[in-house]
Design a protein that fits this description.
Number of helices: 7
Strand order of the largest sheet: 6-5-4-7-8-13-12
Strand content: 25-35%
Structural class: alpha/beta
């Protein structure tokens, strides 16, 4: 039986940073598994030309929330931005500091308390836009980020529209969620790594309609004529 690790992402990042290349597996609650040969993708930013375009104009004071191994923090820091990198994983923040992130802190974005009006932009990259376990959680997160950003502040984040699929397994999972009263893209998962396993985690892959509704209630709107992301990238601006 696998040992439970409460900071499995920290272990994945730390090992990769120190030269250990080992696979990790994402296990969804319906038994679906996806294995990654190593953690290299988490050390890469931006991930494609669309992300590069979305990030190129960011400067000033930036909050990289749920920063992971700090790839986006370092990308912007090297371009002159002042970046505060936060993650609930102690191992992740240890790796961020070792890699050169100047201001990396162990913080949970769902309970963040930082100076009001401090940031010009907030990053929620790597499909972390939907961090709430419920709709009210998500609105609360957006409100907290509204408080810590300036009047012209924005959020740049990524997620996957769960309904943009024809995969029978995904469609069946969505229906199970609906039957249980959950959003279709609310994923319950565990991470397996080197004989260890995380507790059950939640990641909400939000539809554009869900993002727009929660954002609007918290004082944000999607910067897009049709209210949809561009290449999976959302830019939220204050209303």
């Amino acid at each position: 039986m696998a040992t439970i690790s409460t900071d499995i992402w920290g272990e994945v990042y730390r090992d990769h940073h120190r030269g250990v290349r080992a696979p990790h597996t994402i296990l969804r609650s319906d038994g679906r598994r996806e294995t990654f040969k190593d953690a290299g993708i988490y050390f890469t930013a931006p991930r494609g030309p669309e992300e590069a375009k979305a990030l190129e104009g960011l400067d000033g004071s930036i909050l990289d929330a749920a920063c992971g191994a700090g790839a986006y923090s370092l990308f912007l820091q090297e371009r002159g931005a002042e970046v505060v990198s936060i993650d609930s994983s102690e191992g992740a923040i240890e790796v961020c500091r070792e890699r050169g992130c100047r201001d990396a802190r162990v913080r949970d974005v769902q309970a963040i308390e930082l100076e009001s009006g401090k940031f010009d932009a907030v990053l929620l990259m790597g499909f972390t836009l939907g961090l709430g376990k419920t709709y009210s959680d998500q609105v609360s997160i957006f409100r907290r980020l509204h408080k810590v950003t300036r009047s012209t502040g924005i959020i740049v984040g990524t997620t996957i529209d769960p309904l943009d699929t024809k995969d029978p397994g995904h469609l069946a999972y969505h229906e199970q969620n609906r039957q249980a009263g959950r959003p279709p893209g609310m994923i319950r998962l565990r991470v397996e790594y080197k004989g260890k396993m995380s507790p059950w985690l939640h990641v909400w892959m939000m539809t554009p309609q869900e993002v727009g509704k929660a954002a609007l209630e918290a004082g944000w709107s999607i910067r897009s004529p049709d209210g949809k992301p561009v290449h999976g990238i959302y830019v939220l601006e204050k209303t």
